[in-house]
Structure formats: C-alpha cells, structure tokens
Design brief:
77% of the residues lie in helices and 2% in strands. By secondary structure, the chain is mainly α. A hairpin with an 8-residue loop joins strand 1 and strand 2. The longest helix has 34 residues. It starts with a helix and ends with a helix. Keywords: Cell inner membrane, Cell membrane, Membrane, Transmembrane, Transmembrane helix, Transport.
C-alpha cells in the first residue's frame, strides 16, 4: 500500500465523521436559531435576533417549579437505585454468581410492559386506599426507579466483571480488611466510572420521561416534560428556547461529570 492510500483513507474517515456530526447537529442548530429569532416566517433567514424568549422562560415561576420538581424526582429515584442496586449486585456477584443469569432476565421486565399499560395498572392500584400515591412525587420516584433499574444494573455489572470482584475481595481480605472495609474502600472506588455512566444514562432518560409523569401526576406535580406538553400551543420560539435549555442542561451535566471523573482518575 502506498503512502497516499492511508492518507486518503484517513481523510475519508474524517470527512464521514464530520458529516455525521453535521447531520446530528443540524436540527439542533435550527431549533437554536429559531429560539433566538424575533420573527421567522416567510424568509430564509430570521428578520432579527433576540434573547427575550429565554428571558421569558427563565423568569417564568411555573417553568422553574417544573424544572426543580423534575430534578427532585430524578435525583430521588437515582439515590434509591444506588442504595438498593449496589448491595444487591455485590451480593450476587460475590456470593451467588449463578443468580446473575436469572437477574439478567428479571431486570429486563420493566421494558417488557409498555409505560401506558403500567400506568393504567398503577392508577388502579395506587389511585385510592391506604397507598393512594397518584398525583404525588412518590409514585414517580418508584416508577423512575424501575425505569433506571436496567441501566444501573447492566452498567455496574459490566464494571464488576471487569475488575474481577472475587480476586479483588480476596486480596483485600488477605491484607487484613474485613468484608465491609474491602467493599467500601477497595471495590466501591473501582466502580466509580461504571456508576457514573449508569447515573448519567439514567438521569438523561428519566429527565425526559413523559408518559408516567403525564398519566400518574399530570399538573398536580408538573415536571418539565409535562410543562413542555402543556405549553405546546404557545409561541414556537418559546418552546424552542425550552428545548434548547433542556439540551444544554443535560450537556453541561455530562461535561461536568466527565471532568470530575477525569480529575479523580489522574
């Protein structure tokens, strides 16, 4: 192979990657331009630019309330997931590794039932009686926990298999550490990256969840996606500003998590 052929192949790969990024970013760029356009109807380019839609959005108490409530529900569900999933995975992989095959089947059950069907059942079960939680954030936290469960389980399981849990625990105990000390001081720091990936994937998915939030709580505990649905008949510039704000919040969160993860790994 001549020297020109590897260079042309690298150029081809680079062009294809840049083209793919352009295709992915083009709708987002169009939404952003529309969100800062003062008027854009019958012309190729907007007649002017303004940030009044963003100012109107971030000064809206209803939006700020919905944003905060979405954060509260997502963080609550993820904290519950970490508290319950980490000990379960440790016990399964260290003491009962044969149960991993069964857990892989059970963990996919939330995806087997559509959210609409699950919501109807939950309305019947928790709509009245001693466990009436419909319209409260508690039922959303429980639903979001089941939605995040597969993401958390698979990401952390892959990390546990990569660090060779049994050998790591045996080595720590050989050096005098108890089971709890080995789990918290040796195993848990090695799960940082897997846990970070699981949390980011789960948060990004839960923050944009609509079906459970709309059916089970609606405007009684309005989340960001329910707010967006309720504002669909307002100005298109306003809803575009909302979509862009949502995207940049998730992007900023992912960037900050990656920076923190790199700093800790160095």
């Amino acid at each position: 192979m001549s020297r020109a052929e590897p260079g042309s192949a690298a150029l081809y790969h680079r062009v294809m990657v840049y083209l793919l990024f352009a295709i992915l970013l083009l709708p987002l760029l169009g939404t952003f331009v529309y969100s800062i356009a003062s008027s854009w109807s019958a012309t190729i380019l907007p007649s002017g630019f303004t940030f009044k839609w963003y100012l109107q959005l971030w000064s809206d108490p209803r939006f700020l309330n919905a944003f905060g409530q979405s954060l509260l529900v997502c963080v609550g569900a993820l904290v519950l997931s970490v508290v319950l999933i980490l000990p379960l995975l440790f016990v399964v992989h260290y003491h009962f590794p044969r149960l991993d095959a069964l857990m892989n089947i059970l963990i996919l059950l939330p995806f087997a039932v559509p959210p609409v069907v699950s919501s109807v059942g939950l309305l019947q079960l928790y709509g009245s009686g001693p466990f009436a939680m419909v319209g409260t954030p508690w039922i959303l936290i429980g639903c979001y926990f089941t939605v995040a469960l597969p993401f958390m389980y698979r990401a952390i399981t892959n990390n546990l298999q990569a660090i060779n849990l049994r050998d790591l625990m045996d080595a720590a105990q050989l050096l005098g550490a108890s089971t709890w000390q080995a789990a918290f001081l040796v195993v848990l720091p090695n799960l940082r990256k897997g846990l970070m990936v699981a949390l980011l994937l789960s948060f990004s998915f839960l923050f944009g969840e609509f079906v459970f939030a709309n059916i089970l709580v609606g405007t009684r505990y309005e989340t960001l996606q329910v707010y967006l649905n309720n504002m669909r008949n307002s100005s298109g510039h306003f809803t575009s500003a909302l979509v862009i704000s949502y995207f940049f919040f998730v992007l900023l969160l992912t960037w900050a998590a990656n920076i923190l993860n790199k700093d800790k790994s160095q």
